[in-house]
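Structure first, sequence second, as always.
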């Protein structure tokens, strides 16, 4: 059993104890609000058990259920919501009947003690769940903690009701009962909608979708073509289609792994990522070449890292016809650095979205060379000596 499961069980037991105390005190010492609160606590326990049950069995994957039984949890919640509606209706009926009744019973002092005790337990329980939720990084435990916190606030309402009733204003008690019944209705409706949505494969929320898209789009040499994702139980299934102009299958595979890893690191509770990378030839390519001077007559530099300038140019390639669109020369601010200049220059080219780097000589396999590989910048040899000469090739 892990810590989350243990916490859920401790919570269920503590909730059962206060539910029983509230139920007995309310029934025998005249407080409908306290009985209503007790029933609410009972539904909470059923909810916790359902979740626990769902967590235990949803991980089971079989040939028959290759996507796991994650939705079991949502299915259980759906039935639970119906049960909650029923209890809310019962509480509402009893409270209204009592409020209409002219001879209202005043609540006994015991009800105040029971409400106070319940409040204390709920308060401590919420604190404990928040702590575990944060330490275990569990969104479901954190939402459970929030729920318990709301329960404590509800009990404050009950406390006010029983104190007023004890002090000689018995009408306050069924009014609190009605308010709690409405709160239970609301909780039930939320559970109902949430589970129904997941069962019907609602898309993942917009914020998380945008997050995934941003991570994928930040990868080098890819474009996001299509992204769909859905919830299943507490898990997420992602379907991602990308486009790349990289032909090398090994590199595409590497790209795939990198992208998947980054998404999993940022978005929790992902079960499966279906990642498809399609090859697509780029119509517009960005080229670069190391230069000695800042003009078109410049000689092409022999070394890449120490080159003081870089010539950048954009070429459109449509139907086998290449055409130079624009060219410019930028300074290499890292040329005189004593260390890592190759890596820094590669990074700068990557930032300029360069696809191809022309070199005049054989490139030595140092940090710069590997950085270019990492950024998926293709290295091409040219026998041209000058920048202008190289550009001529594309005119
Ligand atoms: Zn509750």
């Amino acid at each position: 059993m892990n810590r989350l499961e243990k916490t859920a069980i401790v919570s269920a037991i503590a909730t059962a104890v206060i539910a029983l105390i509230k139920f007995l005190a309310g029934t025998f010492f005249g407080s409908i609000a306290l009985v209503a609160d007790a029933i609410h606590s009972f539904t909470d326990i059923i909810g916790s058990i359902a979740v626990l049950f769902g967590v235990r069995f949803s991980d089971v994957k079989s040939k028959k259920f290759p996507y796991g039984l994650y939705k079991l949890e949502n299915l259980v919640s759906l039935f639970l919501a119906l049960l909650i509606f029923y209890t809310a209706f019962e509480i509402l009926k009893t409270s209204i009947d009592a409020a209409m009744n002219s001879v209202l019973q005043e609540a006994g002092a015991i009800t105040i003690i029971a409400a106070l005790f319940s409040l204390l337990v709920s308060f401590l329980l919420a604190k404990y769940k928040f702590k575990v939720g944060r330490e275990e990084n569990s969104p479901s435990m954190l939402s459970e903690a929030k729920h318990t916190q709301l329960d404590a606030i509800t009990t404050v309402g009950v406390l006010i009701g029983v104190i007023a009733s004890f002090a000689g204003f018995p009408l306050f008690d069924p009014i609190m009962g009605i308010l709690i019944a409405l709160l239970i209705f609301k909780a039930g409706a939320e559970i109902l909608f949430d589970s129904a949505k997941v069962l019907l494969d609602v898309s993942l929320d917009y914020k998380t979708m945008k997050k995934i898209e941003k991570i994928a789009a930040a990868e080098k040499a890819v474009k996001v073509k299509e992204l769909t994702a859905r919830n299943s139980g507490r898990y997420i299934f992602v379907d991602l289609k990308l486009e790349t102009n990289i032909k090398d299958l090994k590199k595409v595979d590497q790209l795939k792994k990198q992208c998947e890893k980054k998404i999993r690191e940022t978005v929790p509770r992902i079960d499966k990522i279906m990642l498809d990378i399609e090859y697509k030839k780029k119509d517009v390519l960005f080229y670069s070449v190391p230069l000695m001077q800042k003009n078109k007559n410049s000689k092409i530099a022999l070394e890449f890292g120490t080159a003081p300038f870089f010539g950048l140019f954009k070429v459109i390639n449509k139907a086998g016809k290449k055409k130079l669109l624009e060219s410019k020369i930028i300074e290499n601010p890292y040329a005189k650095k004593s260390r890592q200049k190759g890596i820094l220059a590669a990074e700068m080219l990557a930032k300029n979205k360069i696809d191809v780097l022309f070199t005049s000589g054989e490139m030595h396999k140092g940090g710069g060379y590997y950085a270019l590989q990492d950024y998926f910048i293709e290295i091409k040899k040219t026998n041209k000596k000058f920048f202008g000469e190289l550009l001529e090739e594309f005119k």
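Margin note: The radius of gyration is 33 Å.
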